[in-house]
Design goal:
Elements lengths: L11 H4 L9 H9 L5 H17 L7 H12 L8 E4 L4 H13 L5 E6 L5 H13 L2 E5 L8 H15 L5 H11 L8 E2 L4 H5 L7 H5 L1 H12 L11 H12 L12 H20 L5 E2 L5 H8 L3 H4 L3 H10 L1 H4 L7 H17 L4 H6 L9 H5 L7 H17 L7 H10 L3 H18 L14
Parallel strand pairs: 1-2, 2-3, 4-5
């Protein structure tokens, strides 16, 4: 099914509920959190996916077999004889590959990876596919054409279908990926995999279980650091209200923490889902299946921390996929756990402190490897130049010149700078698409 056929139709007039505040609340909160807070959409999604998981009668004790069964039902049982799989070096998509190899011959699986040849995702995916005889294609982002009018039309279309304002660079990547797929052939998405397996579960128990701690953790995870490190407090109040009004969903799912509930309803529904699934006409999301959710959300939280059990399941069930990649064995697990801990804790370190600490460790030029290089892609450079100039002209952040930040990016690719510029670019594109209030300061539609 399409990524959004399973959800109720979006009534934008009824659903739009930005955090109470000034006339430009939607834009301001988007720039704080990377999505436009919408209580109704978040609630409907939680009631549907979590509610179905709570109600489903599923007693599977073999998650790998369950994953295979879910994929088979959504593909083979519907007459499909081949599948597409966006493959990375991550656990989620590799797990889908392992399951597919139990269902399909290798010749019926086509994998694609976006990135430059030297990226970890491309190298890891190509190595696996080469060894297993699976078709693999590297989609080079250097050739992508970034056009503001096209981006705005994409943003408008996604908003009309989903009610969300996701990051534009993510929409662009998956839109380009979809051009390599034949219509009607199902695309397997790793969406929701890390959410269920515990990839982002905070190590701090208070951040998982207490309302105050989980609200603070979710807000910190979603900060864009465009307008500063703190929001206006409206989202925090909405999240507290959300936990209170949806506590009943946790009764049948003992592994569903407060953090999980907020992460699923707000970040996954309002930011991630539309990026990873909306571009595909036929999208299968095995990890969002209510039986898969039921299995993991009835497991002890300790089994999900650091994806401990998920890794054991995948590596034990699909050894042919995980055999020669980094992270196999005790030392690999320890290395990945340390990396995961570092990624989680740095979210709570103020942006200016992280800026001051630059150069003390090796940093990957992730933007260049995964999104394209504005130094060699003139259309990306032009889009960044136009959107940063337009944003600076609004005067929302007078102490920062994002256009100067973009110019610095041309001299030295930097993930911290890119992580802020992508939200500036996204805000300008969504404004052009008419997805924000008409009274935004400096609106391109004024």
């Amino acid at each position: 099914m399409s990524g959004y056929e399973a959800l109720d139709p979006v009534d934008l007039a009824a659903s739009r509920s930005p955090v109470p505040g000034s006339a430009d609340a939607t834009l301001v909160d988007f720039l704080h959190y990377g999505f436009s807070p919408d209580y109704r959409l978040a609630s409907a999604y939680a009631q549907k996916v979590v509610g179905e998981a709570a109600r489903v009668d599923s007693t599977s004790s073999d998650p790998a077999a369950l994953l295979c069964r879910i994929i088979e039902e959504q593909t083979c049982d519907r007459g499909q004889r081949e599948v597409y799989l966006p493959l990375t070096a991550g656990l989620d998509s590799r797990g889908l590959l392992g399951a597919c190899l139990r269902i399909f011959p290798a010749s019926s699986i086509r994998c694609l990876t976006i990135g430059l040849p030297e990226s970890q995702d491309v190298q890891g995916a190509a190595s696996i596919c080469r060894r297993l005889g699976v078709s693999h294609q590297c989609v080079d982002p250097s050739a992508f054409v970034w056009d503001l009018d096209d981006l705005s039309e994409t943003a408008k279309s996604v908003y009309r279908r989903t009610g969300t304002t996701p990051p534009i660079d993510g929409l662009k990547i998956f839109d380009e990926l979809s051009k390599n797929f034949d219509s009607g052939v199902p695309v397997l998405s790793g969406y929701f995999g890390g959410t269920m397996s515990g990839e982002v579960l905070p190590l701090d128990a208070a951040a998982r279980t207490t309302r105050e701690g989980s609200v603070n953790a979710v807000v910190a995870m979603n900060r864009t650091y465009v307008l500063g490190s703190e929001g206006r407090g409206g989202l925090q109040r909405l999240l507290h209200r959300f936990l209170e009004e949806h506590a009943g969903l946790q009764e049948a799912l003992p592994g569903l923490s407060n953090f999980d509930l907020l992460h699923i309803a707000w970040r996954q529904r309002l930011r991630i889902r539309s990026v990873t699934t909306a571009a595909f006409s036929t999208c299968v999301m095995p990890y969002e299946d209510c039986r898969w959710m039921k299995y993991w959300l009835t497991r002890p939280v300790s089994a999900r921390l650091g994806q401990h059990e998920f890794k054991k399941v995948l590596k034990g069930s699909f050894p042919e996929v995980f055999r020669d990649l980094p992270g196999i064995g005790i030392m690999g697990d320890a290395s990945r756990a340390l990396e995961a801990f570092s990624k989680r804790t740095r979210r709570f370190v103020p942006w200016r402190v992280r800026q001051a600490m630059k150069g003390r460790g090796r940093r990957r030029d992730e933007m260049v490897l995964d999104r394209g290089d504005p130094r060699t892609n003139s259309s990306l450079a032009k889009t960044l130049a136009k959107t940063t100039e337009a944003f600076d002209a609004r005067g929302l952040v007078p102490e920062v010149s994002f256009h100067a930040m973009y110019r610095g990016l041309l001299e030295r690719p930097d993930w911290e700078a890119w992580s802020r510029l992508r939200w500036v670019m996204s805000a300008e594109v969504h404004d052009r698409a008419g997805n924000f209030s008409d009274r935004i300061p400096g609106s391109s539609r004024e």
